[in-house]
Amino acid sequence: MNANLSRAQQAFKELVTLRRGFHAHPELSWKERRTQQKILEYLDKWGIPAVVSTGTGVIATLEGARNKDVVLGIRADIDALPLTEAAHPPYVSQNQGCMHACGHDTHIAMLLVTARLLAEKKDDLPLTVRFLFQPAEEYIADSGALHMKEDPLVKAITRMIAIHIQGMLPYGMANLQEGPIMAASDTFDIFIKGRGGHGAHPEEAIDPIAAGVAYYNAVQTLVSRETKALDAAVIGITSFQSGETSNVIPETARLMGTCRTFSPTLRERFPKQLERLARGIGEATRTTIEACYHYGTPVMVNDPSVTQTGLAAAAAIFGRDKVITEEPRMGGEDFAKYDAPKAMLCLGGGFEDEKRRKAQHNPQFDIDERALPLGVAYFLEYVDEYGRKLDGTAI
Q1: Known binder of ligand: residue 164?
Q2: What are the residue boundaries of the Peptidase M20 dimerisation domain, all occurrences included (predicted)?
């Protein structure tokens, strides 16, 4: 067995305990105070220097015994989602309406154990390794990476890697490839102002709900009728809010949604399309409609050089036949905002029983915890593989 895989497998129980602890106590973006405190406590116990960064984040550093100016950043996101957990594992969320439904609990656990295991061999560390526990990945409009990238400790990083667990990719598999892997991810708000009135006399009011329905229906044509069939794009309304009671026509309505694409041209076009609909439907329904577009994360692109090192490390841990290439995903990832060359590996966490597999952001999301040591082993192997390249001893 690969030496790094063996070391990681020996930490399996520790990984499970850590992961379940964070899973049971999820915290929303920019509110990860308990999570931050626990991370700091573990790092302090293991003698790993760490500092608070970006409000609720943490950065820890192990200085290399050689190649000290080469700084590898390894990042884990730490926030949870505003979801109520529908499954009831022993480690179910204790925070009502908040859940680790995107696997960030696993990312924290894997990075903590990676730091501990690398600290045990710090006297032979082939480069400097910096561990980024980043808040607010899920907060698209003002995500944690946008702020953490400005920390001088992050600016000194020369390349970065990360893992994202995948609930639909079977345990034992990994997905790593060069080039675009995740779409640009933006959000929008549609504010509709009508005139409130009695539900019995709609002729005396201007109904913002009717305008919202018209806007919702019109948005469906932006991809189906205005976008080339071969261009990947998503424009979706995911929230419609208006009214509070049955006999009052409300004054306002609000729609929220998301736009996803790999095309810079389409991304530039989306705000103009939404504004055009606002003008036209507003006039047609006698309402005032304002479309507000918020640029979020750019396309996540795996750097060729960083990826090639990762592929060598992944082959050593998973086996070459288990490292696959998949179509890019329409999900967004704020790891894309970091300036250093980077690559993200997607780690299979799917259960053998396909019925138990759930995608990210599902209230029943969970993972096969046997995947955790594989993620740690990949990080350890990446450090060794990159070190061999720096030392000129890579095969």
Answers
A1: yes
A2: 187-273
